[in-house]
Design goal:
The structure is a single chain. This protein has a four-stranded antiparallel beta sheet, with no helix packed on it. Helix 1 runs antiparallel to helix 2. With about 160 residues, it is of the alpha+beta class.
């Protein structure tokens, strides 16, 4: 009978085959800001606008403004929300960084960019939140500027990279 030795659960001594593990640079809340908030806001405002549009004007009780003004304002609010989502929230991406490449995802498609394609990295404040913009030398799948909300490992990675 052969004796089977169990494997050691400590894997820190195993070789990494020369490749570092990717580090998540973007915040875990990016998924909520990128997907859930736009969907919830669009459905809520769209439902409110549709309720006012489809309900008979005699059944609505609006004291200050005529009903067509309220309906027009709700449609403008909904369109303004869609424009806001398109210009700000929809641009947020998930960013992972490895030694030689960065991986950018919009939660449907993931693209790998080599670090040689990065022109500069800048931080800005938008709507009270810190946003990091990565400028590429040429336009890629997600455009020339990739925006993300920095996560907890971003500061350490930035210090390690010397940026």
């Amino acid at each position: 009978m052969t004796q089977i030795n169990p494997l050691n659960p400590d894997t820190t001594g195993l070789p990494a085959n020369g490749a570092g593990r990717p580090v998540l640079l973007s915040s875990n809340t990016t998924l909520a800001w990128r997907v859930f908030v736009p969907i919830f806001g669009t459905v809520f405002l769209g439902g409110l606008a549709m309720a006012y549009l489809l309900t008979n004007a005699d059944d609505l009780y609006v004291t200050l403004l005529p009903i067509f003004v309220v309906r027009a304002l709700l449609i403008l609010l909904w369109l303004g929300w869609l424009y806001f989502v398109w210009r700000t929230l929809w641009r947020l991406k998930r960013v992972d960084a490895a030694d030689t490449h960065m991986y950018v995802s919009d939660y449907w498609v993931t693209v790998r960019y080599p670090w040689s394609d990065v022109e500069k990295v800048e931080e800005k404040k938008r709507l009270g939140r810190r946003v990091v913009n990565i400028h590429l030398k040429a336009s890629g799948r997600f455009g020339q500027i990739i925006s993300f909300l920095p996560g907890s490992k971003y500061a350490g990675w930035k210090k390690e990279m010397g940026w």
